[in-house]
């Protein structure tokens, strides 16, 4: 037994790594190791012998086990010591600078528009970008045969063979949110809905995805005069200068009467200035909500009326910040983003520059 002890204590002391320790553990105290073999011999001994040898063997097993774990942890300590010598970190070095991102002009203008309308008591509503044709067209008084459907260059989703339901569309305007919010909150209501819209069109002033902000106000005593005031207040606050407007009679299926609104501007050397000169630029469509649209939204047109408008956000951003090409908005060119982008702390607020 002493030989066995000396042998293993020596081998453990000389073990070079954790793998060697594991081998020794299997050889000495494993299920088929030398101690186990000795334990088996206990069966052949007399009870007296067994009483002496049993505890001795157990003690030997314990001794070897603790030598194994002591060696194991001293090997681990040595390995850590070695790593600490080669790996080090100079915490006094200056940090690596990261370039700051910027707020996209569309996001900035959306925030500006929202701040101005929020101040006039409009809440922000949202709707899905993938719409049913009912919300995008029918509920807005654009029936199946109406030319507006064809004119809008709609993106349709795919339906499986044999599925005859009308396909969903990528919403072509934010107007369906009018219906959704009437259904949700009823009348009276005052909301705007900024968001993405889609049409299959691409040139210097059209991209297949662009942005609109819809407005809707419904109450018992709403007239075209309220619409005009709200829009003029908005345009003046947004452009930071008194903006002359021109309401031109127009036609939209969802409003009656309808008006397109132009703002006063000047064109000089190919760049446009708002609030001066004697040119006009169209910026939005608007009108009094059609009774059929109120009915589609579940509102009694005999009791309530309202106005609505739809503004192109991208167009507003181009005008206010002098951005000539719409397509550049969506090119993700870092140089462009750094030039036209806004600092994250440049939050648009009424007290911080938006006038009202
Ligand atoms: N939905 C129209 C478009 O995308 C814009 C519009 C016009 C919205 C008149 C309105 C409105 O709410 O009253 O061309």
From TrEMBL:
Q: Which family does it belong to?
A: Belongs to the class-II aminoacyl-tRNA synthetase family. Phe-tRNA synthetase alpha subunit type 1 subfamily.
* Reaction it catalyzes: tRNA(Phe) + L-phenylalanine + ATP = L-phenylalanyl-tRNA(Phe) + AMP + diphosphate + H(+)
Q: Which InterPro entries does this one have? A: aa-tRNA-synth_II, aa-tRNA-synth_II/BPL/LPL, Phe-tRNA-synth_IIc_asu, Phe-tRNA_ligase_II_N, Phe_tRNA_ligase_alpha1_bac, Phenylalanyl-tRNA_Synthase, tRNA-bd_arm
Quote the NCBIfam families the UniProt record gives: pheS (TIGR00468)
Keyword Plastid (UniProt): no
Give start and end of each Aminoacyl-transfer RNA synthetases class-II family profile domain: 107-331
According to the record, cofactor stoichiometry and binding are noted as: Binds 2 magnesium ions per tetramer.
Q: How does it assemble?
A: Tetramer of two alpha and two beta subunits.
* EC nos: 6.1.1.20
State its cofactor: Mg(2+)
Q: Where in the cell is it found?
A: Cytoplasm
* Stretches that traverse the bilayer: none
List the gene name.
pheS
Q: Does the keyword Metal-binding apply?
A: yes
Q: Give this protein's Gene Ontology molecular function annotations.
A: ATP binding; magnesium ion binding; phenylalanine-tRNA ligase activity; tRNA binding
Q: What Pfam families does the annotation carry?
A: Phe_tRNA-synt_N, tRNA-synt_2d
What is the designated name of this protein?
A: Phenylalanine--tRNA ligase alpha subunit
Give GO BP annotations, semicolon-separated. Answer: phenylalanyl-tRNA aminoacylation
* PANTHER family referenced in this protein's UniProt entry, alphabetically: PHENYLALANINE--TRNA LIGASE, MITOCHONDRIAL, PHENYLALANYL-TRNA SYNTHETASE
Q: What's a GO cellular component annotated to this UniProt protein?
A: cytoplasm
Sites binding Mg(2+) sit at 256
